[in-house]
Amino acid sequence: MIMALSTDHSTRSVADILGAIAASTEAVAQQKPGAREKVLALSHQLVSALETPSETIQRMGWAEPARFAATQLAVDLKIFEKLEEAHDAPVSLSDLTKSTGADAALLARTMKHLSAMDVVGETGADEYISTPISTALTVPKFRDGISYLFNVAGPSFHSIPAYLKATGYGNPGNIADGPFQFAHKTQNPFFIWLAEHPGYGEQFNNYMSGYRQGKRSWCDEGFYPVMDRIGQGLNPETPLLVDVGGGLGHDLLELRTNHPELSGRLILQDQPDVIKQVGNAAEGIELAVHDFFTPQPVKGAKAYYLHSVLHDWDDASCLQILHNIVPAMTPGYSKLLINENVVPDFGAAWPITSMDWLMMALGAVKERTERQWRGLLQQAGLEVKGIWTYEQGTESLIEAEVAV
């Protein structure tokens, strides 16, 4: 079962795009599923239709890179915190200079570009206020996303053309020899390198929780039918759901919040440093240290859940992960739930295509099509029972059972 909105990437006139946006305003106001994403996609099309080639190159070549660099500088100098502390009152350049110790001329150039790119607000000459995005960037799960992407992912992206030229333009497929290793001068796969750089590891974990905020959860009403698929015929003696490699546990919290009527143990599994970062688990959630490259210790759960795990690994590694879970599953009872992108054959949205490039940059891996997902799971002895997609450009929920 697949439910998704298509994305029209055909060339359209400015008038057509404006008309489509106007026709969608009521749906956005009513918060209908996919309406906001549709207008965002149309807005991107509108910019492309209005820009001249020169303007597009300027935006790609220096406006956006300068915004990213200036935002990282503002994070380093805690400028967004200074604006937030003012409680919507203007903050002068002079005050920012005093509080940061940075050169006034440098700050002036930085703040002007951040204002021009709508990261901060400008109330007068050398006077600035916070905006929703600058306020968000005072919160670790968003702020750390900037630093992680700028310092870790950014160099990997920039190295892709040179890496591909040096390797004869083959599709990257070696997790220990890809654009990331080329950029960061290492022979270690991404996650091993991350473990050796705990500061970036903490930023990565925080960013993962921020990345998912505001997105539809698999257990939201209208997405995956939780009660029908995993809420029936439960065995009270066995766990309800095991979140394998579940990070800081936000998915389990959402499941418990959205479906308090579900009974059964909820278990969060991850590496020791991640579990340590979680600290005290929320009520009803058990913490467990587990390496998913080793056999799954929890047997017979109703569901085993993998969110944004398998796209980090090549097929051989994914099969190893899956082969460690399948023996723990009870045929005809247990389900494997995979919360990942499913790349459509036509009209893929930019959040998915750009994530595919991010996977190439960091791990020499990929986002998978439906055919690739089905083939991978079949090799692991699993049968896909359904695929649910809430709206375009978002992750899907793949349900599989042990093949019989």
From TrEMBL:
UniProt-listed PROSITE patterns:
SAM_OMT_II (PS51683)
- O-methyltransferase dimerisation domain mapped to chain residues: 72-138
- GO biological process terms, semicolon-separated: methylation
Pfam families xrefs: Dimerisation, Methyltransf_2
Q: So which domain of life are we looking at?
A: Eukaryota
Q: Which GO terms describe its molecular function?
A: O-methyltransferase activity; protein dimerization activity
Task: Report the residue ranges that make up the O-methyltransferase C-terminal domain in this protein.
Answer: 239-382
Going by the UniProt record, its keywords in alphabetical order are: Methyltransferase, S-adenosyl-L-methionine, Transferase
Read off the PANTHER family from this record. HYPOTHETICAL O-METHYLTRANSFERASE (EUROFUNG)-RELATED, PUTATIVE (AFU_ORTHOLOGUE AFUA_4G14580)-RELATED
Q: Write down what this protein is called.
A: O-methyltransferase domain-containing protein
Q: Which organism is it from?
A: Letharia columbiana
Q: What is the lineage of its organism?
A: Eukaryota, Fungi, Dikarya, Ascomycota, Pezizomycotina
